[in-house]
Design a protein that fits this description.
- The structure is a single chain.
- It is built from eight helices and 14 strands.
- The protein is α+β, with helices and mostly antiparallel strands and 203 residues long.
- Helix 5 crosses helix 7 and helix 6 crosses helix 7.
- The longest helix is centred in the last third of the chain and has 12 residues.
- It binds zinc ion (ZN).
- The site of zinc ion has 5 residues, from loops.
């Protein structure tokens, strides 16, 4: 499995292109569709599915064009459908933890509300795509309209229990860094550490 990080748009968003052979998935394609199409073409990749980690505009913005061009519906947690502002016909809503298969990929959905009500993390093999739930050394904002600080603490606690060598790929490269691993975050991330410390109160 190959993971390309495409840093696109004015807000340091990270779009992930996950591929195996000629088969590819995109996570949070939101900006610069011409660049994304060009990348798929030059690598000779066939786009099988698109996933959104949550519905904020900077993670979904220009994706309608791409979805229509490829005849795809993007997977999104149902609580974030409205937030995305995208037309229903380009979305495939789902609810709760589950595995979604696409070609050779099995995408395990971990619901992680807190930043938004429909926020999820996507686990593919040893890689975890965390959107705006978990960043290296930080977590996403919890002061937005569908945010819930208590839910965020619970979500961080759930993520802390994943295998320590799970690779983390976040939704933005704030400070120039978008990747980490769970073991490192368990020890260094103050928000995750606080959630672990208060486990009895949270769960
Ligand atoms: Zn967000």
């Amino acid at each position: 499995m190959n993971i390309d990080v495409l840093e696109l748009g004015p807000m340091a968003n990270c779009t992930y292109l996950v591929s195996q052979g000629q088969d590819a998935l995109l996570i949070d394609p939101a900006w610069d569709m011409n660049y994304i199409e060009h990348t798929l073409k030059t690598k000779g990749l066939h786009l099988l599915a698109v996933f959104f980690t949550h519905g904020h505009f900077d993670h979904v913005k220009e994706s309608e064009q791409l979805l229509r061009a490829h005849g795809l519906k993007a997977y999104i947690e149902q609580n974030d459908v409205l937030l995305s502002g995208l037309p229903e016909e380009v979305l495939q809503p789902y609810s709760g933890a589950q595995d979604i298969k696409a070609g050779p990929f099995s995408v395990h959905i971990i619901p992680t509300p807190g930043h938004t009500a429909g926020g999820v993390c996507l686990q593919i093999g040893d890689a975890l795509f965390t959107g705006d739930t978990l960043f290296p050394g930080a977590c996403g904002r919890v002061d937005l309209p569908s945010s819930d600080p208590r839910a965020m603490r619970k979500s961080l606690l759930i993520l802390s229990k994943l295998p320590p060598d799970t690779r983390v790929f976040a939704g933005h490269s704030y400070g120039g860094k978008c990747s980490s691993n769970i073991g490192y975050e368990r020890v260094t991330n103050p928000f995750m550490r606080s959630a672990i410390k208060d486990e009895k109160v949270i769960s």
